[in-house]
Amino acid sequence: MREKKAMYVEMGRRLRKARLAAGLTQEQFAERTGISPQNVSCVERGLAGVSLPVLRRMCEILRVSSDSLLWQNQADNDTDGLVRRLQQLSPEQFRLVEHIIYDLLELITPDKSKKPES
């Protein structure tokens, strides 16, 4: 039981951090997620868990992976941050960054796959 409680507390801490990084209040987040602000508060404090459908909606709203909320390994958070930044680019900027990344990867790890055509 203690392990479950610790898991809820850690997930709640990570959820709160992701919500704040997204610039959402508990009320805004609750409205978008379809749960009550009180429920958001309980989850963030580790007093309650969430169902899989709610977890999925939370991840979609916050644009984070479920792994970044559920597991202590924070390596995925770097990926989530990069994904968020890429999603904010215009289509033209995204294509430019995409080509730069593929060119860089080809330089450091030659691969048989080709970069996308424009």
Describe this structure in words.
The model has no long low-confidence stretch (mean pLDDT 85). The chain has seven helices and no strands. Helix 2 (26-33) crosses helix 3. It has 118 residues and is an all-alpha fold. 70% of the residues lie in helices and 0% in strands. It has helices at residues 2-21, 26-33, 37-44, 52-62, 66-70, 75-87, 91-108. The termini are far apart.
Helix amount, in percent? Answer: over 70%
Multimerization state: single chain
Instruction: Work out the helix count.
Output: 7
| Topology pattern, helix = H, strand = E | HHHHHHH
Give a topology summary.
Layout: H1 2-21, H2 26-33, H3 37-44, H4 52-62, H5 66-70, H6 75-87, H7 91-108
Helix pairs in contact: 2-3
Task: Give me some keywords for this one.
elongated; single chain; 7 helices; 118 residues; mainly alpha
In short:
The chain is mainly alpha-helical and 118 residues long.
